[in-house]
Specification:
homodimer; 150 residues; alpha+beta; Arc Repressor Mutant, subunit A; Dna Ligase, domain 1; two-stranded antiparallel ribbon; 6 helices; 5 strands; 44% helix; flat; DNA-binding
Chain lengths: 150, 150
DNA sequence: ACTTATAATGAGAACGAGTCTCAATTGCAG
DNA sequence: CTGCAATTGAGACTCGTTCTCATTATAAGT
């Protein structure tokens, strides 16, 4: 099924209305080419001539999180600010590689991580739900530029 | 070396003063028995009769982060709020197991994760700095209570 | 199509975690 | 002991996010 239709279906299941705003916000999210933050989304929508309000953006993001189509990435261990969102249908991976030089985020998908999580939880008697791995590393470009991190 | 002395040494190295407030805040952090948030720390200090201001708490936490004695944990994928802090000398692990039932956090330390991170970054030409793994799972107690997560 | 009930929206007020300001206080070198 | 620079406390401020409520839009029933 198309991802747009999954969203429509989710709205129907909840008895929620299929509004223009929700469609436009979701379309904009599909256009994002990397994990994005609210500011980026707001700016993009304004650029497209949409005058969707901040409140509706936040409300729709919340909906998408609940639908499981979208997920958040907590980035730096220092800043709890500036949450990034990532579309699950587009970016399968729940794990991220963060460049400590330029801040660029890319997705990674490694079966071995999942296996480790399974082992760890089983050993401790926990029931695994999900996991999230963030690796902080310097990307090749930043290394070439001679950027060092404090 | 005692961890208290490491902090004192760090202050000296920076030419900073050894104040009562800094000592008391650090003592309170040592008393915390799990990763804690600012509210918990504030409450504990008040309980102890300290009237340290919010601003000083935040300033000292920042100092401790810079010293490398303390680190932050970004917890839930949903809430970017309520940053947790964890003492490095006390809790060695940088990886955490979060119960999706009661929210309890425990530290885990698995060499296999480190190895995976090394492999992944090497493959992509990145230079590994650090990583942070969060596993979300239901703890044995919550399973026994029949708690299910949405 | 036309109503009607009700969900959703927009604008801006409110909230709250964290930061900043600046006058008062404290640590410490001399 | 003194003087001065670093530190502190109290509260103002910031800014991302949420809430409020009057207005608007959707969809079910006629």
């Amino acid at each position: 099924m198309e991802i747009q239709q999954q969203f429509e279906q989710f709205l129907s299941q909840r008895g929620m209305k299929h509004t223009n705003e929700r469609r436009e916000i979701f379309r904009a999210i599909l256009d994002m080419d990397a994990p994005f933050d609210v500011d980026k989304l707001l700016f993009y929508l304004k650029q497209q001539g949409e005058k969707t309000s901040k409140a509706t953006i936040y409300r729709t993001l919340q909906l998408l999180l609940e639908s499981g189509l979208l997920r958040t990435i907590s980035l730096s261990p220092a800043a709890a600010r500036d949450t990034l969102y990532s579309l699950c249908g587009k970016y399968r991976a729940y794990d991220h590689l963060v460049c400590t030089g330029c801040g660029k985020v890319r997705d990674i998908e490694k079966q071995q991580i999942c296996l480790s999580c399974q082992t760890i939880t089983k050993e401790l008697g926990y029931k695994l739900e999900s996991h999230s791995l963030r690796i902080f590393a310097l990307c090749p470009e930043c290394q070439a530029k001679g950027i060092k991190t404090c």
